[in-house]
């Protein structure tokens, strides 16, 4: 859990350091100022309690954590409008820019993704690594988005659609605009604190 | 709106200092701006006057967000302090707290550095993320709207009397003219001249036929 949270934190730091200098205070600013970070921390807590904590064999502790998670999950959902499904598997280094109307269903997501406001990810979708989803992007159920793709703001990927690697996709329904689009500037340094490089 | 009228005496020295720094009509300007915003809000369900105006101010969540934004803008730019001491920092802290409440209650977020003219109407349903360079007078922004910067980190510039309907994204270093109507579900990232209608994803610019 802590590795994942550290990676998330690194993403936020690297992306906000373009605008602000990352001073000591600014680093802890994230804990109350970035609603997306709080939501991901709550989700990591739930996922950790569900999968890894069970291996201890001490069952009441696990249920305690799950109850705490449910309460925090409901609070975060109503206050910030960010709804991450409890069974969603999300790789480390998730960045949620802004808040409101974000729905991440029961999907699988790779490491180093970026999600913005009003993004809808349906159930049974698969999202690869380092995918940048612009605001108001919608991925319908069963769609597959491969690594290093970029969804422009307002892109709607139809049900069971497939988006190939390194493409830029735009419009509703989504059309391919560029085949070899470099989104490294948008993603920032993925997994900055986890020691991994691209 | 002056805090004290030439009060004499040593005890009032501190109060006088505050009033001197807060003079130059900056508070009056803030109140006039808020009154103009409130006029828009109170005119929508039907004209209301007097105390009814303040009731609409309490009821409409969009106005809360506008009021907090105006207060923050006034604190950063208009309020002429000789040096930013403890009092300014306390007011700033109050702003941060109010901003947090507004964000979680209404999901409206307005960039602190954006310059917005009087008569702004934000939808009471919220879910608006807005950062603009400049915005003119009497603009209407509906629910689930995003206005922000693109890859070049420069937010758009918007003219007077612009109506932006719901589910719209406007982004990038663009300039939108006066009296433009942006329909629901538009994704717009190019310049728009005056008196146009924009619809579609990606947005197409059409002449205003009505």
Structure characterization notes:
The complex is a heterodimer of chains A (198) and B (210). Chain A is of the alpha/beta class and 198 residues long. Chain A contains five helices and 16 strands. Chain A has a single domain (2-182), classed as 3 Solenoid (UDP N-Acetylglucosamine Acyltransferase, domain 1), CATH 2.160.10.10. In chain A, the strands form four sheets. Chain A has a five-stranded parallel sheet. In chain A, strands 2-5-8-11-14 form a five-stranded parallel sheet, with no helix packed on it. In chain A, β15 (168-170) and β16 (175-178) form a beta hairpin. Mean pLDDT of chain A is 86; it is low at 193-198. With 210 residues, chain B is of the alpha/beta class. Chain B has one domain (13-207): UDP N-Acetylglucosamine Acyltransferase, domain 1 (3 Solenoid). Chain B has five helices and 15 strands. In chain B, α2 (26-43) crosses α3. The longest helix of chain B is centred in the middle third of the chain and has 21 residues, at 86-106. Chain B is globular, with a radius of gyration of 19 Å.
List the helices and strands and how they pair.
The complex is a heterodimer of chains A (198) and B (210).
Chain A: H1 2-16, H2 24-33, H3 35-51, H4 59-80, E1 82-84, E2 89-90, E3 95-96, E4 102-104, E5 108-109, E6 114-115, E7 120-121, E8 126-127, E9 132-133, E10 138-139, E11 144-145, E12 150-151, E13 156-157, E14 162-163, E15 168-170, E16 175-178, H5 184-187
Parallel strand pairs in A: 1-4, 2-5, 3-6, 4-7, 5-8, 7-10, 8-11, 9-12, 10-13, 11-14, 12-15
Antiparallel strand pairs in A: 15-16
Chain B: H1 13-22, H2 26-43, H3 51-59, H4 61-78, H5 86-106, E1 108-110, E2 115-116, E3 121-122, E4 128-130, E5 134-135, E6 140-141, E7 146-148, E8 157-158, E9 163-164, E10 169-171, E11 175-176, E12 181-182, E13 187-188, E14 196-199, E15 204-207
Helix pairs in contact in B: 2-3, 2-4, 4-5
